[in-house]
Design goal:
Layout: E1 2-6, H1 13-24, E2 27-30, H2 31-40, H3 44-55, H4 61-72, E3 78-81, H5 87-100, E4 106-111, H6 114-128, H7 135-157, E5 162-166, H8 171-183
Helix pairs in contact: 1-8, 2-3, 4-5
Bound molecules: adenosine-5'-diphosphate.
Length: 188
Amino acid sequence: MRIVLFGPPGAGKGTQGLRLAGKLRIVHLATGDMLRAEVAAASDLGRKARDYMDRGDLVPDDVIIGMIKSRLKDVDGMVLDGFPRTLAQAEALDAVLDDAGLPLDRAVLFRVAQEELVKRLVSRAVEQGRSDDTPETVSRRMDVYREQTAPVIDYYRSSGRVVEIDGTGSPDEVFDRLESAVTGQVAS
Ligand code: ADP
């Protein structure tokens, strides 16, 4: 299966994506995690990405598309978390998957109210100390999500591949909804 997860910062894509990939025995590809590893390793890519990430802006499409393309080689099942975030990225992904004859099965959108997102990001900042979880950067990332990533969901909506789930509640509750959404079964 090929699944894309969408949702604003703090929606829970990372936690749930990892769990879903484990359950389905497919690869979890999280572009934010990959970029943080590149920054930590002080690679060329990490140096290019760092300032954008610290501001809460998107890393340029060519950098991200190059990075993800190399990871998509020879992979036929995956959960994509944090990619695509722009229309250009969505088109590049479709081109790669079409070439491989492996279309996307589902795009899942996590819905979480704004106040809850802010609460979660504040506690994540305390627990994980991520350098882009400051109030200014969080607010910039929310704007970027609305302006650049929300249109990508409409792009997938036009082909009928979007399923929306409620991202509030315990991690187990959200996971049950996610599993039902991707397998097409009705939530119990
Ligand atoms: P969140 O969903 O909480 O914003 P991520 O870990 O997915 O966090 O992303 C962190 C940062 O990494 C983003 O703010 C952005 O700078 C960069 N990034 C991750 N994925 C992409 C992408 N697909 N395109 C551009 N930049 C990205």
